[in-house]
Amino acid sequence: MSNTEPVTGAVPLSAPYYGASLSIAFSRFWRKYATFSGRASRSEYWWWVLISVVVAAIFFIIGNLAGGIYGPPTAAGSLTMGPGYGIYVALSVIWGIAVLVPGLALTWRRLHDTNRSGALYFLGLIPIVGPIILLVFVLIPQNPEGARFDR
Q1: Whether the predicted model's global pTM rises above the 0.70 cut
Q2: What value does the mean pLDDT take over residues 106-132?
Q3: What is the DSSP string of the chain?
């Protein structure tokens, strides 16, 4: 398999793909499964975020169609788990395990594209403010100096 995308004016897999379409971003996400070096464009990153949100919504719908995620409330008013809850959790856990490493790698490469160390990903572990800082970092446009993270 070649190291380029099968399109005219191909962008090497080792370079960020600015203006990537949804299908290209999806393909590159899986082809760069555990690649922490290099960079990822904003389009690559945000198309994958959209795909992840859609998949989570589909799992939620499947769980509700399979009998509901939430059952009737107890006499005390607390929620109970419905029959679809197990299906929803099983699908979500399998998906979460499958995308854990490539999702981390994609965010790492996106930080590289803004000329920041991928280790800043762990700022997201700081309660409340950490995820906001990380969000700002992935929203920032590319910085050409981020090429230092390329191989």
Answers
A1: yes
A2: 96
A3: --SB-SSTTPPBTTS--TT--HHHHHHHHHHTTT--SS---HHHHHHHHHHHHHHHHHHHHHHHHTT-SEE---TTS--EE-TTHHHHHHHHHHHHHHHHHHHHHHHHHHHHHTT--GGGGGGGGSTTHHHHHHHHHHHSPP-GGGGGG--
